Amino acid sequence: MAIKGIFFDAAGVFYRRPVSSEQIVSETLQDRVLVSDLSAASEKRLTRLRSQANSGRISPDEYWDQVLLMRGVTSLEERRSLLAKIDENSDSIVAIPGGTEALAGLKQRGFVLGIITDTMHPIERKMLWLQKVGIAEHIDRVTCSSVLGVHKPDSAIYLDALKQANLTPSEAAFVGHDAAELQGARKAGMATVAVNYDPGARADYYAQSLIDLLSVPIFQTTREQRENMYSDIEVIFIDVGATLRVLVEDAPYQAQAKRQIADLVGTTEPAEAFCTELDRRYKVYRKWAFDTLLEASEKDLWTRWMLPDYPAERIGPLAGELTFLYRKTMGRRFAQPDARDVVVELTRRGYRLGIISNTITEREIPQWLEEDGLSRYFPTVVLSSIFGRRKPGPEIYWEAARQANVDPAKAVYVGDNPIRDVVGARLAGFGMVIIMPEPGDEAKMSPTEENKPDLMISKLSDLLDIFPERSNSHGTG
After folding, report:
1. Which of 19, 67, 373, 403 places its Cα 20 to 30 Å from the Cα of 192?
2. Under a CB-based contact definition with an 8 Å cutoff, are residues 407 and 434 in contact?
3. Same fold flag, 5-14+93-228 and 235-245+335-466
4. Do you find a cis peptide bond into 252, omega within 30 degrees of 0?
5. What is the average per-residue pLDDT within 230-238?
6. Three-class DSSP category at 286
7. Other beta carbons less than 10 A from residue 244's beta carbon
8. Helix axes 364-371, 319-328, angle to 10 degrees
9. What are the DSSP calls for 340-381, one per residue?
10. Are residues 404 and 380 in contact, defined by beta-carbon separation less than 8 angstroms?
11. At what angle do helices 271-292 and 251-265 cross, to 10 degrees?
12. Which of 356, 409, 416 has its CA nearest to residue 233?
């Protein structure tokens, strides 16, 4: 389902304080003999107090007064003086560049914009800060922890914001910097975008600045474009490696495959050494394939590239089995946990499905589809090893569209590699391209204009939020 609403954290996203309240306490009392390291019990109590303050159950002054007492400030007069400094510092905010421009651009594209904020302070004071940094006029709704009585990363605060905006989780995104808060939004079912983010923060999308939010794929279209984006899609083509399936290393399994290759070829070399040389030769082949965008048949792969020093008339008939075993030397391959459910449901909704895959194998993928009971859901399967051409060349996409009897403009491609998958699908005139990065690779992706997908997803089941049931649905699932 298309994104309709975007909700933001406030502090750390739109503004910051040059000096934190914690710094004021430590700097003011740095020459005093105070409690510097709290016990584990005191740390837990401090966490509970902060949760109470953010939930509106105690005031900011009550929270900081307890903090100062725990730090050894016993003088009531001294605590009052420090509380005044802390309170004054709360208003000392500095805008993070780009907020006004980013929100104005997103508002122009028709998004509902909201704030989901944890704060000890009343919502009226929060609004003054939003006005000070120039974004209040663009915000439609503010959900404040001190008013609601619950704070992030509890799902309740995200869901309350969505309820106010009359949106479902799949129609909304959360933009934040804190790892725990981003995770909370994901658990609530929202798409997540990290900006000014903490080290190790995980999100579906990443922006290096507030202005870069305008380039996040799910934020790039207008409301009208979002409503019409998917209406013409008839066929969804999906990649196999790292998309429909994942590769998992399994040392005993891989070692056995190497022994089987050595036995099949009849070499006297140790299996490990023999397969190490095959790996070296395979890298040479791969470079040729990448440079030419051609894919050798299994027979040519083994007689020309992998074992050219063996009689072709003996190796050629073994090529299919050798390829099958060589793929096993890389590890076990398993379907994504949600693959079957997604494939069945998309078919039921009226979409035709297909596979477009760069692969050296001719037999393995059709055999896997048959064994997993998925063959009937993929009437079109185009493999580079059979077709002879590879992504990102447009020819393999055109061939898939031809076999499926679909206009490329009415087809979508789902893959994992922006360079290989986006460029090729664009060249072929596909109507839409979706990228699903491998876990951990999201932050590394910085798509250029040439390889920027229409959408990025984190799991296959996200496709069910994107593609609704077709009005002329006649699924076979």
Report:
1. 19
2. no
3. yes
4. no
5. 90
6. helix
7. 27
8. 70
9. HHHHHHHHHTT-EEEEEE--S-SSHHHHHHHHTT-GGG-SEE
10. yes
11. 90
12. 409
* Architecture of the domain defined by 5-14+93-228: 3-Layer(aba) Sandwich (3.40)
Q: How far is CA 77 from CA 22, 67, 73, 82, 173, in A?
A: 19, 15, 10, 9, 46
Using alpha carbons, list the distances in angstroms from residue 311 to 30, 317, 323, 355: 81, 11, 17, 35
Distance of CA 248 to the CA centre of its chain: 20
- The structural domains of the chain, with segments of one domain joined by +, span 5-14+93-228, 18-90, 235-245+335-466, 250-330
Tokens found for residue 272: 């490990």
Choosing among 3.30.450.20, 3.40.50.1000, 1.10.510.10, 2.60.40.10, the CATH entry for 235-245+335-466 is 3.40.50.1000
pLDDT digits over 45-83, tens only? 888 998 999 999 999 999 999 988 888 888 899 889 989
